[in-house]
TrEMBL record:
FAD-binding domain boundaries: 299-341
Superkingdom of the source species: Eukaryota
Keywords, comma-separated and alphabetical: FAD, Flavoprotein, Oxidoreductase
tRNA processing recorded as keyword: no
Protein name: Salicylate 1-monooxygenase
The organism's taxonomic lineage, starting at the top: Eukaryota, Fungi, Dikarya, Ascomycota, Pezizomycotina
Species assigned in the record: Penicillium alfredii
Single Gene Ontology BP annotation: secondary metabolite biosynthetic process
InterPro entries: FAD-bd, FAD/NAD-bd_sf, FAD_monoxygenase
GO molecular function: FAD binding; oxidoreductase activity
Keyword Flavoprotein listed: yes
Length: 344
């Protein structure tokens, strides 16, 4: 019988990916894991998100409890995503009277659901329940190599930890990734796509007046310079229509914050040439609208995702715009792959 100590995995970052890795390793008892997060798992609170059927299957393989958490938080799956063309030359010729206002639909030929929308904060609250809370409130400051080859983590509160392997899921501007790359390497930081996603929700009574029953569908309206995603969701406060309106910005984002708030008026103006229904939805948003700066790493991808025993995953490894909800779905693939490799 081997007496050697099993490999311990240290996870940095309690966002939607780090937490799922930790829960996935709970299901693989021969791989002990410890999760250090600087906050709780709540990430970008309040916004909605959607997962593909592939991502849901990956969650099941990581740990079926993740899917149970998703079921508690999520809304019914969507068998189709409807798209509309918002170019005025096109939509003004549309004649779908009495039909769903879409131009084509994305369906999964295997009969699986295409996307499952849910309120992000409810899902992460359910995930939080699956892991001990005492592993949070630790901000990683640095990773050093000791003379004996061991790596040591130092946290903001002065504590240190010796590690076997680190999996850093520490966000778009991953401090871990920056520790290992030269400042001049363009892959060290994510790049602004100059897309801004304006997000909020409106009450169901208002939505029915504007869209009628068609609002029950997940619709992506694509037009000049942007797209507007609408999806119904329910939470303990009632039923709402979630809206994500993506616009192009002429200016590069130079500030450090990843999210900000602006007046609705600019957004209303931007979509003024779109279909009347879309314009009415935008006009029904609250006066102050939150927006997210959209980054991506496709122009400057990392050449390697591991630096000795330190590996990055989730947004720390690759960021993508939120069209059709790929960001976290890709991160779940990362951690399922790593959990499988660690066991092997
Ligand atoms: C508007 C918007 C909508 C989106 N919608 C979707 C969608 O519908 N579907 C989808 O799949 N994806 C979507 N995404 C992408 C998705 O949000 C990300 O891919 C996902 O949150 C990445 O998870 P993560 O755990 O890697 O990073 P995060 O969720 O950002 O979490 C990182 C965690 O690391 C912690 N951390 C950072 N630095 C340190 C440190 N030094 N020490 C300790 N902890 C640290 C942070 O506090 C945070 O909790 C969307 C993104 C945006 C902006």
């Amino acid at each position: 019988m081997s007496t050697s100590k099993p490999l311990e995995v240290t996870i940095i970052g309690g966002g939607v990916i780090g937490v799922q890795m930790a829960i996935g390793l709970l299901n693989r008892p021969n791989i002990p894991a410890i999760l250090y997060g600087q906050g709780t798992a709540r990430g970008r609170q309040g916004s909605g998100m959607a997962f593909t059927s592939n991502a849901m299957e990956n969650m099941r393989q990581l740990n079926p409890d993740i899917l149970k958490a998703l079921d508690k938080a999520a809304n019914p799956p969507r068998a189709a995503v409807y798209m509309t063309n918002q170019h005025p030359d096109f939509f003004q010729r549309r004649t779908h009277e009495g039909e769903l206002p879409y131009d084509f639909a994305i369906r999964n030929k295997a009969g699986c659901d295409v996307l499952r929308p849910l309120p992000r904060d409810q899902f992460t609250a359910e995930l939080d329940k699956l892991i001990p809370a005492d592993k949070f409130s630790m901000r990683l400051e640095k990773i050093e190599a000791r003379e004996d080859g061991k790596r040591v983590l130092t946290f903001q509160n002065g504590t240190t930890a010796e590690i076997d392997a680190v999996l850093a899921c520490d966000r778009i501007r991953s401090p871990t990734r920056r520790m290992f790359l030269d400042k001049t390497d363009p892959a060290a930081i994510p790049h602004d796509t100059r897309q801004r996603e304006y997000r909020n929700h409106i009450s169901w009574e208002k939505v029915l007046e504007i869209l009628g029953d068609a609002a029950n569908n997940l619709i992506i309206n694509v037009g000049p310079g942007g797209y507007v995603i609408t999806y119904p969701f329910t939470n303990p406060e009632g039923k709402f229509l979630g809206i994500g309106a993506v616009m192009q910005d002429a200016e590069e984002w130079k500030k450090l914050n990843l999210k900000d708030t602006t007046d609705r008026e600019g957004v209303v103006k931007y979509f003024s040439g779109w279909e009347p229904g879309v314009q009415k939805l935008i006009a029904a948003l609250p006066e102050a609208v939150d927006f997210w700066i959209i980054f991506d790493s496709t122009r400057h991808p990392l050449k390697l995702y591991a630096f000795g025993p330190v590996c990055v995953a989730g947004d720390a490894a690759h960021v993508s715009p939120p069209f059709l909800g790929v960001g976290a779905c890709l991160g779940i693939e990362d951690v399922l792959t790593l959990a499988t490799v660690f066991v092997e």
